[in-house]
Write a structure and sequence with these properties.
The protein is an alpha+beta fold and about 800 residues long. It is built from 20 helices and 32 strands. Strand 30 and strand 31 form a beta hairpin. It binds beta-D-glucopyranose.
Length: about 800
């Protein structure tokens, strides 16, 4: 696999051996450190935000709402707020009897060498720089950063300076910079970017500086305190402290002798509270920074926390794909860690790694929860609870749309209200265009699907019968109420929606947005309705009665659910499932001509719009849409769903459908190659690996051209891990144990991972060519039931490992 990064061996490091300004934002994103509570981009400590560098620190769930004037209209946006920069450190040489040198940065002419290393096992980031001036005087600088996985309110950065061929002093300024804004994404530059106000600074004994500020709506109080330590200890006090209106600086002059090393450590304590909460987070942050352990002690505890995480989350795949998968897992665990289980947050599509999509939550948890269900079920449950807490907002949205039930938002943040922008910029044409992507109502089915799958995988009936049932039933109700009966067709229809494809937001020349009967939307809606009915049957009688009463859900309404679930319209054309009604009548695009003309046609929608045309006229999809059905459902499940809807979906029709859309998709989303890789691998189709590989490369090679610098693609990252763990193994954890039905993928002949299943933590699966090993850890639980292809049933007792031929 060709990634720009170097591989120094063990598969546990990610790194870069030269400084390349044009790549720096990508490096910052991929070297972000986080602990689920907050994350800091892997930016160079020497640099504030500018065209090359973009430091950013983001707190999970910390959004702020502002109004901007865009193209003459007021638009509101809820952004994940960039917090003050705690990493900033300026330094320069003060050789004896000479004027001070320049402040040194990776952009200095004196830079001779630079390395970046992310240590995935330990969760640390190392940046090394070597500077040399015209007289040959050298300075080696090494930064080691951690964002504490054990104590989610702490982070630290230790810098060492080593002098070569000179003696004198180093002037070092440790800064806490609150003069920051959300300016990480060029396309959003016209939007209001300032979210922090009311800055207050303090200095405390022991080298501690503190800064507090607040966001506007809803108000969060944010306090950061940094303790700066220098070693050798003299001088312990800064030569100068500066408190500006938005930040602090502590300046040290540190004697350094030829061949000797001095160290400066910044230890951060971050404390936040909702505004109007009693207590002063600044005082708490200052106290915590003052009391925080030394860097070595922090590091030891941090490494121990990571070790535990790796044990629970382990996925071992040999070679370069394995190293990329480990990087993906690292970023997933930093965005959604066990600390997330204590928070009220959703799955940010771009991680806590940048500002693309303004930190919003989409449907991407569909690609993230399966991994968490199997490894960190508490975190999965917390993410579902985030959705449940926003059920009132989803009900309100449905009500305003004239519907019953719950209509979950396409994009959302803190409040659960719809946050999708109303207009978006096509950077190619410079035109502002209406954004109808909010019509992606299928997001509600994704939420319901996640509830159901979580409960099946973990056996957590309490959640399913409690909050889970409320979500599922309210989404089902929304679908039943949205379905319009078409007497001509003798079927129900869901009209005016947008499918996962996103490109098609209207029929050509139509006055109203949306398309009708998106097959993915309709089939998943039918699935939700059917599961809603199953759940009602399965619920204990008292809970069923309670829910029927509370939701005012009478027999007449559920009879309609049954009818709709069997008679939603699924369009077909020329022997394949139609992406939506009328898709087959749209014009065919000359794909070859567009590829030849533009090279990269992933954002075909923008290309066509800039040409004065519209993608709505063509059979051209941004990403997997109909084929998402093959991602969510096994062939037998899908056939049963279609049969319930009165259609026969045989193998031939499905294969023809896969083939059809493969030739008509531009892969404008990183989710696309993931889903295609999955679907083809399950079909043992040719070319599966090409898509899997593209999914693996999504961020490390920035395949969407410049988007990784704005944040990771968390869905694709998590999805690739899940592709190995569930896609290739055909694994399903359910009430009857573990079902495994591997397909062989030549490029991934062997791999191993641990998961939670059947009440056991740390069940280890090893897949080798033609063989499967299952080890159940010793413990009090029952033997683990295992179902292999051909309905071969076995059990694996605790404390044993069994091997099975495949
Ligand atoms: C994709 C969506 C996805 C979003 C956030 C978009 O480009 O089309 O399916 O939810 O990115 O990742």
């Amino acid at each position: 696999m060709g990634s720009a990064a170097v591989n120094p061996g063990a598969g546990w490091t990610w790194g870069y051996d030269a400084y390349a300004p044009e790549r720096e934002r990508l490096v910052e994103t991929l070297c972000t450190l986080g602990n689920g509570r907050f994350a800091t981009r892997g930016s160079a400590p020497e640099c504030a935000a500018g065209t090359t560098h973009y430091p950013g620190t983001y707190l999970a769930g910390c959004y702020d709402r502002r109004t901007s004037l865009v193209d003459g209209r007021a638009v509101e946006n809820e952004d994940l707020v960039n917090l003050p920069n705690w990493t900033l450190l300026r330094y320069r040489r003060l050789p004896a009897d000479e004027p001070a040198g320049e402040w040194l940065t990776p952009d200095s002419d004196e830079l001779r060498h630079s390395t970046v290393r992310l240590d995935l096992r330990r969760g640390t980031l190392h940046r090394g720089l070597y500077f040399q001036d015209a007289r040959g005087r050298g300075l080696r600088v090494g930064h080691t950063r951690l964002v504490h996985m054990g104590d989610p309110g702490l982070a630290a950065q230790r810098t060492t300076f080593h002098a070569y061929g000179w003696s004198g002093e180093i002037e070092v300024e440790s800064l806490l910079d609150g003069d920051v804004a959300n300016t990480g994404v060029e396309r959003y530059h016209h939007l209001e970017s300032r979210h922090l106000s009311g800055h207050r600074t303090v200095f405390a004994p022991g080298g501690v500086a503190g800064l507090s500020c607040r966001t506007g709506d809803p108000g969060h109080l944010i306090a950061l305190a940094v303790r700066t330590d220098t070693r050798p200890a003299r001088p312990a006090r800064p030569a100068r402290t500066t408190g500006t209106s938005t930040g602090t600086g502590q300046l040290y002059r540190l004697p350094i002798a030829r061949g000797r090393t001095v160290r400066v450590t910044k230890t951060l304590a971050l404390r936040t509270t909702p505004a109007h909460t009693p207590g002063d987070p600044l005082a708490k942050a200052v106290e915590a920074a003052g009391e925080a352990p030394s860097f070595p002690a922090l590091l030891a505890a941090h490494e121990a926390a990571w070790q535990r995480l790796w044990e629970e989350g382990e996925l071992h795949v040999p070679g370069e794909p394995g190293r990329v998968l480990r990087l993906h897992l690292f970023h997933l665990l930093q965005t959604l860690s066990p600390h997330t289980a204590d928070l009220d947050v959703g799955v940010p599509a771009r991680g806590l790694h940048g500002e693309a999509y303004r930190g919003h939550v989409f449907w991407d948890e569909l690609f993230v929860l399966p991994y968490l269900d199997l490894h960190f079920p508490d975190v999965a449950e917390a993410l579902l609870r985030y959705r449940h807490r926003r059920l009132p907002a989803a009900r309100e949205a449905a009500r305003r749309a004239g519907r019953r039930g719950a209509m979950y938002p396409w994009q959302s943040g803190g409040s659960g209200a719809e946050e999708t922008q109303e207009v978006h910029l096509n950077p190619r044409s410079g035109r502002w265009l209406p954004d109808h992507s909010r019509l992606q109502r299928h997001v509600g089915s994704a939420v319901a699907y996640n509830v159901w799958k979580y409960a099946r995988s973990t056996g957590d009936q309490a959640f399913l019968y409690g909050e889970g049932a409320e979500i599922l039933l309210e989404v089902a109700r929304f679908w039943a109420d949205s379905a319009e009966r078409d007497p001509g067709l003798g079927r129900y229809r869901l009209r005016g929606v947008v499918g996962p494809d996103e490109y098609h937001d209207a029929y050509p020349h139509a006055a109203v947005p949306g398309v009708d009967d998106n097959a993915y939307t309709n089939v998943t809606a039918a699935w939700v309705l059917a599961r809603g009915l199953d759940l009602l049957r399965e619920l204990p009688a008292a809970r069923r009665a309670e829910l029927r009463e509370r939701l005012a859900l009478d027999e007449g309404e559920t009879a309609r659910w049954d009818d709709v679930s069997r008679r939603l319209h699924v369009p077909f054309h020329r022997g394949v499932i139609s992406q939506f009604e009328g898709f087959g009548e749209l014009a065919e695009l000359d794909w070859e001509a567009y590829r030849a003309g533009y090279g990269d046609i992933r954002r075909l929608d923008r290309i066509l719009e800039a040409e004065g045309d519209t993608v709505n006229r063509y059979q051209a999809s941004k990403q997997a849409d109909t084929l998402m059905l093959g991602y969510l459902f096994r062939p037998d499940e899908l056939a049963a769903l279609f049969a319930r809807l009165g259609h026969r979906l045989d193998d031939g029709t499905w294969r023809a459908t896969v083939d059809y859309y493969l030739r008509r998709t531009s892969h404008g989303s990183t989710l696309s190659s993931l889903v295609h890789g999955w679907v083809l691998a399950r079909l043992k189709g040719t070319g599966a690996w090409r898509y899997c590989e593209e999914a693996l490369l999504s961020d490390v090679a920035d395949v969407q051209g410049g988007t990784t610098g704005e944040g990771i693609h968390l869905g694709a990252m998590a999805g690739t891990i899940d592709l190995v763990e569930r896609g290739i193994t055909g694994l399903e954890a359910g009430p009857d144990g573990l079902r495994v039905a591997p397909v062989s993928l030549r490029q991934l002949p062997r791999f191993a991972f641990t998961l939670c299943c059947g009440g056991h933590r740390g069940v280890r699966l090893r897949v080798l060519p033609g063989r499967l090993g299952v080890r159940v850890p010793a413990g009090p639980g029952a033997p683990l039931p295992l179902v292999l292809p051909g309905d071969r049933r076995f059990t694996v007792p605790p404390g044993e490992e069994r091997w099975f031929p495949l």
